């Protein structure tokens, strides 16, 4: 009898020892690792909480992935962890790790910030991008000329026309951008096209307005680019857009200096008679209608002006010479000649 009691007591003591040892093992396994240097790790899209726990153990951030899995089930976490590249250090608590993974507190990638001013041409944009990414301008200009492989090109319906100097001219929205340094030249150009899409959508009902005027997006951006290069004073943009449409409706040549300047290697303060005779489909002194495409990247104000021009009877305008950069507008050629004389007296 005494032997049986002793055996039972020994079994109880052994179970208690095992239970205590197991509890200690679990408790110890859930403690933070000894503090150490931060470790970078990446959670791929589609990874579950179990895989993430194993990843944390493999990187020495936690002691036992098994216990982290159990803890996640206990606190009902792990379903909202976000993919990305993180840094964490041995010594971080379970709760701290969970909060970071839920928040998507990923490592910030190095970025490049660059600004494309309104009215820049494709060539100027290529040079700007080349400087920002330490590349040759030709790398970007090749993409701008072809548009090959860019998804936004088909969405925007950008035409492929041999008369165009640069296929994406006018479609690269002028803006300040901050892009990941690892971006490829194609991704950079794509981002600029996508920005144009966003800006067009912000204009509201632009497709209906185009349909009402019987214009394509390409024609709209062409008009907007003319406005951009001709006008400095914002309030005059809709007026100049109206003049352009008036002349188009009457079948008159636009005779816009900016289209000739676009063809020159270097901008001139003043165009001469020989400049106006240059043989090009972009020369609106020689050809009726719009040029084959935009001559620059118009800003939102010029795009809106082209969408909603100011109705008037004006067919002519001349720049004031008083430093205001404004214009004098005229309904007839006779009035226009008087305005030219007037502007020269300022």
From TrEMBL:
The keyword DNA-binding does not apply. GO terms for cellular component: plasma membrane. Pfam families: YceG. Coiled coil: none annotated. The record marks 230 as: Important for catalytic activity. It catalyses: a peptidoglycan chain = a peptidoglycan chain with N-acetyl-1,6-anhydromuramyl-[peptide] at the reducing end + a peptidoglycan chain with N-acetylglucosamine at the non-reducing end. InterPro entries: MLTG-like. Its EC number is 4.2.2.29. One of its GO terms (molecular function) is lytic endotransglycosylase activity. Keywords: Cell membrane, Cell wall biogenesis/degradation, Lyase, Membrane, Transmembrane, Transmembrane helix. Signal peptide: none annotated. Gene3D superfamilies: Classic Zinc Finger, Endolytic murein transglycosylase. GO terms for biological process: cell wall organization; peptidoglycan biosynthetic process. Transmembrane segments: none annotated. Functions as a peptidoglycan terminase that cleaves nascent peptidoglycan strands endolytically to terminate their elongation. Belongs to the transglycosylase MltG family. This is Endolytic murein transglycosylase. It comes from Paenibacillus jilunlii.
